[in-house]
């Protein structure tokens, strides 16, 4: 080793030691924050605070450290810090290596205790019974639309939306051999197969497509069968030692899924919030137009409206609405109160930081 390289490596070691010292100093402050929160009964996990940290650091980053890596690095620092304050248990729609698992890791980091559940209702139940602090469930995909089971659960549950996660979905074709010629069957979740339908028809037209419960289950099956392939995430491929046959085979390259973090609480306003409500309107002429007027006259943007049949009464519908702003802001509160005049039933599902 030449002297110049040795000197540079010694400089890196010195900087690493300084980083370690600063991490421990930060951890001590975090513990003090935890003690202060205990006295005031404040929430120890505040997603809007995390977003503000990431954004501030990105804006102040002079380089050459890449700005898109800042959130990944500090997510793990914050995750480890939260674990010092209080062990955090997060239920998610499993199994491991599904896109929901990846979303949970993206939101909470690797220091959280992430616990897979077999169904969306089981995630809600774990949080409602206090066996998990938070839950992560999918709610809609940019190509396939809403996850109706999640919406239905909010009709029955008293849980609130605490945060949202927006994740880009990349479907990879994975197998043990990585050779297209070896593939005699393809496993995946029905939604993933639907999102890759055109590519499969063009490249594997005679290969049977087999529905399974999750993309992770598909990867597990492919790991035990050299003649099979799975459509799944890169994380599933890594977990089950599969090789990439073809990356990102979805017919639409712009493919995002929105996930919700559920909790027993509503976070305080953070400045860039969204409020979700559900309501049942009275059956009157012009009611659909009138239900939008409280928001229009206050210049409040509605980012989503979705309807679901009311299961207990035929031909009646319950509506889900996403509103920009926090329920504690006067304009949003007044608009929701006015909407309530036209409703048989109205429920605020949560106010939470908008995903960026």
From TrEMBL:
Key words, A-Z: Amino-acid biosynthesis, Aromatic amino acid biosynthesis, Cytoplasm, Isomerase, Lyase, Multifunctional enzyme, Phenylalanine biosynthesis
Gene Ontology cellular component list: cytoplasm
InterPro entries, alphabetized: ACT-like_dom_sf (IPR045865), ACT_dom (IPR002912), Chor_mutase/pphenate_deHydtase (IPR008242), Chorismate_II_sf (IPR036263), CM_dom_sf (IPR036979), CM_II_prokaryot (IPR002701), G/b/e-P-prot_chorismate_mutase (IPR010957), Preph_deHydtase (IPR001086)
Position of the signal peptide: none
CDD domains named among the record's database cross-references: ACT_CM-PDT (cd04905), PBP2_PDT_1 (cd13630)
Entry function: Catalyzes the Claisen rearrangement of chorismate to prephenate and the decarboxylation/dehydration of prephenate to phenylpyruvate.
Protein name: Bifunctional chorismate mutase/prephenate dehydratase
Catalytic activity: prephenate + H(+) = 3-phenylpyruvate + CO2 + H2O; chorismate = prephenate
Pathway(s) annotated for this protein in UniProt: Metabolic intermediate biosynthesis; prephenate biosynthesis; prephenate from chorismate: step 1/1; Amino-acid biosynthesis; L-phenylalanine biosynthesis; phenylpyruvate from prephenate: step 1/1
Positions of the record's site feature: Essential for prephenate dehydratase activity: 257
Record-annotated Prephenate dehydratase domain positions: 89-264
Record-level GO BP terms: chorismate metabolic process; L-phenylalanine biosynthetic process
Domain ACT: 276-353
Compartments where located: Cytoplasm
Predominant location category: cytoplasm
Coiled-coil region(s): none
Stored PANTHER family: PREPHENATE DEHYDRATASE P PROTEIN, PREPHENATE DEHYDRATASE-RELATED
Gene Ontology terms, MF aspect: chorismate mutase activity; prephenate dehydratase activity
Domain annotation Chorismate mutase: ranges: 1-89
Source organism of the structure: Desulfuromonas acetoxidans (strain DSM 684 / 11070)
EC number: 4.2.1.51, 5.4.99.5
SMART domains recorded: CM_2 (SM00830)
